[in-house]
């Protein structure tokens, strides 16, 4: 079992390079199965989740090589359109194979994902939309079985969903007719997936807007290279860390426009941010006022930075409120932050935070990817030694987090117990 040992109190100074986006590369990896072919994907982060997706593609029959942040994927021999429970239970994003397998085989057997650390995470939007595309969908011993060629049509999501938009986008590029996705997710990861599908030969309009129109592939392109966008959530994590701990860091390999909502809030409390074309410079003395925040779909403040933001607000000057609008119980980080002396009260989807003078070091436990990042930030901001356990959660979404923070002057190391 591995742990992180953090001795807090050091400023963060220097440069850090952001890796490729986890939430963009995972659906793109599944999209390589839509058209049998050879795909080279660059800027792929070495994460537990990308390794899990590699395993899944191999089970389906793909040949996959990974080296130097590059994936070579050969999907010509894929012949097993199913995703087993063993893998889906470790990574919900495995459910992204549903659309691509349906597009290719007109058949797909995917284990129904269970809940996660913060409760139920249904996939009813995915299933309802496929049924509206005339696909037969049934549940069989914990597996979703989907059969039939999607027909296309108008798909109206009552609530935005990144995953459902992604699955329907991928199912629709091989549909019988055109598909209109209304109230689609606008996340940069969906735009990136759409760009990959366009390279595959699909004609897609409206990516990044509420309404996306997909005209199925006429001429397939099954042999090309594709670059994965930078990970805006990793970049946001380093921005919040620098603001909270204090320091002067340059965050490189990022598209600043993906983080407008975060920049706006940080500037709102006088954190000094200089925006360049592909980088930011953040300067902070670690002293800042409290400010209220609420999460929302893109381009609003991302829920995947909510926990990190709460760690920051826990030592702000004054009181603040955080309202979580995407997942009504994404608060498993609170009990751990309380162990470090934070003063946080929770009522329904809203956390009430009273800023404290000092965060105290303590042994704490990770519960999910982003909650883990919040604990690392709090530990770096405290004065003393913290021990962070169950770090397999953090390895799912952050590539070499301790190396990156060490390079910025943090005293952080990984130990095996
Ligand atoms: C994606 O999850 C991300 N995961 C999540 O990041 C992120 O938190 C989320 O989008 C929101 O931004 C990946 O990209 C792999 P949703 P996804 O469908 O697609 C409800 C991380 O830390 N809903 O947009 O699962 C759902 O319960 C992860 O990297 C239904 O009710 O999110 C939630 O409340 C964590 N029925 C809301 O919609 C459905 O069929 C948004 O979920 C689908 C979703």
Describe the structure.
The chain is globular, with a radius of gyration of 21 Å. It has helices at residues 22-31, 48-60, 85-88, 98-105, 124-132, 162-172, 188-200, 232-245, 260-268, 306-313, 334-339, 369-381, 392-397, 401-407; strands at residues 2-7, 12-17, 38-42, 63-67, 70-74, 82-83, 107-111, 136-140, 143-147, 153-156, 179-182, 203-205, 211-215, 223-227, 247-252, 272-275, 279-284, 293-294, 319-323, 343-347, 350-354, 363-365, 385-389, 411-416. With 417 residues, the protein is of the alpha/beta class. The longest helix is centred in the middle third of the chain and has 14 residues, at 232-245. It has 14 helices and 24 strands. The model has no long low-confidence stretch (mean pLDDT 97). Helix 5 (124-132) packs parallel to helix 6. It has a four-stranded mixed beta sheet with strand order 22-23-1-24. Helix content is 31%, strand content 27%. The site of ligand EPZ has 24 residues, from helix 1, helix 5, helix 6 and helix 12.
